[in-house]
């Protein structure tokens, strides 16, 4: 397909040399523990939370009365802003009092300061790549004439704003690489603005396209297709329900008011349309969705005939269809139709019935999670127990070879066009920093292109994969990472992180933030819960409504496994997750509050009865269900974190994390949840909320804010586990 880089994804909710810390002398576990004093515990129990007003509001769901006393926190007004300020004051006063927090931030800043590169890609005979010098808020796009020539800055997002909160979100070159269209977003919002730059001169044109969401610019001749919503009402652009997505064509040099409406459906307000052109600009493909769980319809227009209309290829939402590219007048499509682990088929859009499909690469025992068509070869990436394998086929589906990978981990890349002879990919794992390789397509030759150097002895750690048993007997895989020689004494601080939803797979990847945890003797555990895509659509459906409880059971069983096998104890266990993973943590802590010491739900979906009423929340109904349906309401009510907080229960030490500009999962979810928790939770542990301002769901967040957030997160975890990672060893 036409190469378009989109950094803000519409799908799910959608989250680091041989240096030993000189500030501590490591024990066998690398951690020095100290018992939290009674005085400290009492002080924490007496945290002076802001008084949160309650209103008399009750909803009736099929005869069940449900109080919603914090409904007023769903709006954006001065009163809510004052509440946010008051909550942040309590939280940051608490964090400021953690004596080793600054040491954590200093160490994070030091190890974060390493050069990070993206894989190069070719446009118009030149190579482009992203690079971050280390602590730059946003990565910079560079250009070079050859892979050996001196690179020059092409586009620097750090100049978009003074505080680094305006991010580059999309990038697409036209066919001749004369122009580039790029998207920006402010404060982490999903709303995008597209602008156009002349490649040769760097001159920005007057073109400006606004109110774009869940789209990417896709070029055709002297303009590009894109999708947008109507401008939202003033004052509610971060909360308004997103309806009536439309596809437009923007011609370079004209105002947006003259853009041609290409497609809309006035009868289906909750459909999204994502338009892309094939490499040769022969076809316009519309991916049509009614939810964020993967299934989509597929429409097309044959651009060879300017009078042709947009027609359906697939006009239902039973399966997933992803067009890789076209081969002549047929489309190469990756699909899970009658193949839950995906297969590759060739579809004639004029004869789209399944009996006319040609199977190019059939389904096998592993999940085909990505396909590219480069240099006349089909390059398919597979997941085997959540780790990558890459297989190369010819256009008839004959297996030619496998791409050699350095170890167990995750690959990304292999982008390019049909006639490219080379492509690049990035390989990473938990303790393997992202490393870029060059792949010679005709000769199946892999060479190291660029290695990442970090200030951490990555050889000091080991990764293992275990399979544990969930509540219903299902075997679930989990990666566990820790220092070599770790003593299984039941006393190791452990961070359990997961997601479990929207067909999204968690695979081994490098996190410089996690390396601080690991170098101080912590254990990092990542289970691949049902609801994800690690084993295909069947695994996904096993964690969708009405089966969502399976996901929470899998997470609970992971915690029980770590405790039973003496990696840790309940007093040294923290659980974390973001977005759908925030829901996961909320359900975990309300169902099994005694099982973990610390809970870190981030930008989570906490009000399962009203999530579909804000922004793009309606798209999650296929995944969760809807409170508008009686049976689904009853299911949602059983696990909705907001509605399952009980009076007088001692919950884990909790720091909810959200952002005031999050228009994916609106912050009201977190606002209402923490209000209920502070009101009902028994004293003994802190119940705090950390609210970023000028930030959103996570994408595009400046490096400085990311480092500060991680410093606060680790400090909160250590403090509530009774651990000082920088305490001097006692004799």
Automatic annotation (TrEMBL):
UniProt EC number: 3.4.21.26
Residues of the Peptidase S9 prolyl oligopeptidase catalytic domain: 508-722
Taxonomic classification: Bacteria, Pseudomonadati, Bacteroidota, Cytophagia, Cytophagales
One Pfam family it belongs to: Peptidase_S9_N
Protein name in UniProt: prolyl oligopeptidase
UniProt cross-references to InterPro entries, sorted A to Z: AB_hydrolase_fold, Pept_S9_AS, Pept_S9A_N, Peptidase_S9_cat, Peptidase_S9A, Prolyl_oligopep/macrocyclase
Enzyme class: hydrolase
Catalysed transformations (reactions): Hydrolysis of Pro-|-Xaa >> Ala-|-Xaa in oligopeptides
Positions of the Peptidase S9A N-terminal domain: 50-451
Record key words, sorted: Hydrolase, Protease, Serine protease, Signal
Provenance organism: Pontibacter amylolyticus
Family membership noted in the UniProt record: Belongs to the peptidase S9A family.
Keyword Protease in annotation: yes
Signal peptide: 1-18
């Amino acid at each position: 397909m036409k190469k378009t880089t989109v950094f803000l994804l519409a799908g799910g909710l959608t989250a680091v040399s041989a240096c030993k810390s000189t500030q501590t002398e490591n024990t066998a576990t690398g951690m020095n523990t100290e018992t939290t004093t009674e005085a400290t515990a009492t002080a924490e129990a007496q945290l002076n939370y802001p008084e949160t007003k309650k209103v008399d509001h009750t909803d009736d769901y099929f005869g069940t009365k449900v109080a919603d006393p914090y409904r007023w926190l769903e709006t954006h007004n001065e009163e809510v802003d004052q509440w946010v300020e008051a909550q942040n004051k309590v939280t940051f006063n608490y964090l400021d009092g953690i004596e080793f927090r600054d040491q954590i931030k200093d160490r994070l800043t030091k190890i974060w300061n390493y050069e990070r590169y993206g894989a190069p890609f070719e446009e118009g005979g030149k190579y482009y790549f992203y690079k971050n010098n280390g602590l730059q808020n946003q990565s910079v796009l560079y250009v070079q004439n050859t892979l050996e020539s001196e690179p020059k800055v092409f586009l620097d997002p750090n100049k978009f704003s003074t505080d680094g909160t305006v991010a580059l979100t999309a990038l697409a070159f036209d066919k001749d690489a004369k122009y580039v269209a790029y998207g920006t977003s402010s404060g982490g919002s999903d709303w995008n603005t597209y602008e156009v730059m002349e490649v040769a001169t760097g001159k920005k044109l007057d073109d400006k396209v606004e109110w774009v969401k869940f789209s990417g610019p896709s070029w055709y001749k002297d303009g590009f297709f894109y999708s947008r919503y109507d401008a939202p009402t003033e004052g509610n652009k971060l909360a308004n329900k997103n309806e009536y997505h439309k596809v437009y064509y923007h011609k370079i040099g004209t105002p947006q008011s003259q853009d041609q409406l290409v497609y809309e459906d006035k009868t289906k307000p909750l459909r999204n349309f994502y338009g892309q052109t094939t490499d040769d600009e022969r076809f316009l493909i519309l991916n049509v969705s009614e939810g964020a769980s993967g299934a989509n319809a597929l429409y097309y227009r044959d651009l060879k005939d300017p009078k042709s209309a947009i027609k359906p290829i697939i006009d239902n939402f039973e399966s997933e269809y992803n067009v890789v590219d076209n081969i002549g007048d047929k489309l190469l499509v990756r699909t899970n139709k009658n193949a839950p682990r995906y297969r590759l088929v060739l579809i004639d859009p004029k004869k789209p019935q399944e009996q006319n499909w040609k199977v190019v690469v059939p389904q096998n025992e592993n999940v085909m999670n990505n396909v590219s068509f480069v240099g006349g070869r089909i390059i398919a990436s597979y997941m085997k127990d959540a780790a990558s394998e890459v297989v190369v086929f010819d256009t008839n589906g004959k297996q030619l070879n496998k791409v050699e990978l350095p170890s167990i981990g995750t690959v990304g890349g292999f982008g390019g066009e049909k006639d490219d002879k080379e492509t690049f990919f990035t390989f990473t794992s938990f303790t393997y920093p992202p490393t870029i390789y060059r792949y010679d397509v005709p000769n199946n030759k892999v060479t190291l292109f660029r290695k990442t150097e970090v200030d951490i002895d990555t050889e000091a750690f080991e990764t293992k994969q275990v399979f544990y048993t969930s509540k219903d007997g299902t075997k679930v895989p989990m990666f566990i990472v820790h220092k070599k020689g770790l003593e299984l004494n039941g006393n190791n601080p452990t961070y359990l992180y997961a997601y479990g939803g929207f067909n999204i797979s968690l695979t081994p990847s490098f996190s410089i933030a996690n390396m601080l945890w690991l170098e101080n003797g912590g254990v990092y555990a990542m289970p691949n819960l049902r609801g994800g895509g690690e084993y295909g659509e069947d695994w996904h459906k096993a964690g969708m409504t009405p089966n969502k409880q399976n996901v929470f059971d899998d997470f609970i069983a992971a915690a029980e496994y770590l405790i039973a096998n003496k990696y840790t104890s309940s007093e040294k266990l923290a659980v974390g997750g973001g977005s759908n993973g925030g829901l996961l943590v909320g359900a975990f802590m309300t169902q099994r509050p005694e099982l973990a010491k610390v809970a870190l739900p981030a930008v989570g979906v906490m009000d399962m009865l009203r999530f579909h009423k804000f922004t793009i929340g309606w798209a999650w109904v296929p995944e969760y269900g809807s409170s508008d349906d009686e049976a689904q309401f009853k299911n949602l009510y059983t696990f909705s974190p907001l509605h399952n907080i009980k009076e007088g229960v001692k919950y884990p030490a909790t720091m909810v994390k959200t952002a005031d500009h999050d228009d994916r999962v609106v912050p009201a979810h977190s606002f209402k949840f923490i209000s209920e928790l502070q009101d009902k939770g028994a004293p003994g542990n802190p119940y705090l909320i950390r609210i970023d301002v000028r930030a959103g769901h996570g994408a595009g967040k400046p490096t400085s804010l990311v480092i500060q957030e991680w410093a606060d997160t680790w400090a909160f975890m250590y403090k509530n586990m009774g651990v000082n990672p920088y305490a001097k060893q006692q004799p």
